[in-house]
Amino acid sequence: MSRWFEDIEVGQVAETDSYTLTKQEIIEFATEFDPQPFHMDEEAAKQSVFRGLCASGWHTAGILMRLQVLSRGGDDGGSMGSPGFDDLRWLKPVRPGDTLRVRSTCVEKTPSRSRPDRGSAVFLAEVINQKDEVVMDARLIGIIRKREARPE
Description:
alpha+beta; 6-stranded antiparallel beta sheet; 6 strands; 23% helix
């Protein structure tokens, strides 16, 4: 399923499939990329403000990205990358066994003034757990190719 600039409307909402985290992958990610005790050690995590093992927020952000790309069927030709994101917030701990999905709402869409083959869109992306709690959100900015400018 391709997603081109013309297909996106302000107010449009899309949801992804879900992903369940394991204790092992939480510890492995943290060991390599965010080696804080509450992400790697169950006993230390119990004594932390989180009161138990929780995933790194960066791990959660990576899962958001994976789910969004896979929901589009991988490389759809429309995505031209991103200049970044705004207002990333980690709202609740993500625990082993949590099942996450992403709800993405387009909040802004702007055709490029200098490059007629593309535009930008801003999405409120919410990572939601199995209890329907928003555990992370961010405003993601995408640069998106126009359909008539698709690569051959």
